[in-house]
Amino acid sequence: MDHLIEKPNLSKATTKRLSLYLRCLKELQKEGVQRIKSSEFSQLTHVGSATIRRDFSQLGELGRSGYGYDVNYLISVFSSILDTIEEKRIALIGCGNLGQALVNNNFRRNDNLNIVCAFDNDPEKIGLIFNGVEVYSMDRLDDVLKKEKVTVAISTVPSHQSQAAVEKIVNNGVTAILSFAPDPIKVPEGVTVHYIDLTTELQTLIYFDELAQSQRG
């Protein structure tokens, strides 16, 4: 099988599906499954077979006709694309219920992703420690980010506060931001922002669920 080039230029939608594929493949590996066909993988991931084959084709020759795909090989390929070999030190901005849930989980499935500090404006939260991570005042952002060598940030602050918070983060050298506020944030060139809008995700889920139910009926 041909090896793919590192970090291919994939769309955001394809990259999100690769993450889903990798998670499902690791579950198959735990169950002792050694190979799988696209039709079987489609049932597991709820992604169409044609979409799976198209996604895989962008990454080289990953399978053989009539044989399917080697699970261990796919895991190695997708891991090489998605997993970082360097530790990414992450700052959490906003330590409400969502922020606390994120820091308590702290990417336990990936040793190279670590939330190392958290920030909030609430005096009752400042100084608290969640899962070994201390919550600092936003006034401490400059010196703590520099000391902790943070390059990635997760923002859970509301939309009306997110622009100001992100500007402070970016001014301290952070180049990758995951925002849970749906409104767009202005950032300079070279800074990447991804948005997670839970309402949109839920509406999309319900749409496809209702569509599937109507087709069954």
Automatic annotation (TrEMBL):
The gene is rex. The keyword Cell membrane does not apply. NAD(+) binds at G94, C95, G96, N97, L98, G99. SUPFAM superfamilies: NAD(P)-binding Rossmann-fold domains (SSF51735), Winged helix' DNA-binding domain (SSF46785). Homodimer. Residues 20-59 bind DNA. PANTHER family: REDOX-SENSING TRANSCRIPTIONAL REPRESSOR REX, REDOX-SENSING TRANSCRIPTIONAL REPRESSOR REX 1. GO terms for molecular function: DNA binding; DNA-binding transcription factor activity. Residues 84-184 form the CoA-binding domain. GO terms for biological process: negative regulation of DNA-templated transcription; response to redox state. Pfam families: CoA_binding, Put_DNA-bind_N. Belongs to the transcriptional regulatory Rex family. Modulates transcription in response to changes in cellular NADH/NAD(+) redox state. One of its GO terms (cellular component) is cytoplasm. Keywords: Cytoplasm, DNA-binding, NAD, Repressor, Transcription, Transcription regulation. SMART domains: CoA_binding. It is found in: Cytoplasm. This is Redox-sensing transcriptional repressor Rex. InterPro entries: CoA-bd, NAD(P)-bd_dom_sf, Rex_DNA-bd_C_dom, Tscrpt_rep_Rex, WH-like_DNA-bd_sf, WH_DNA-bd_sf.
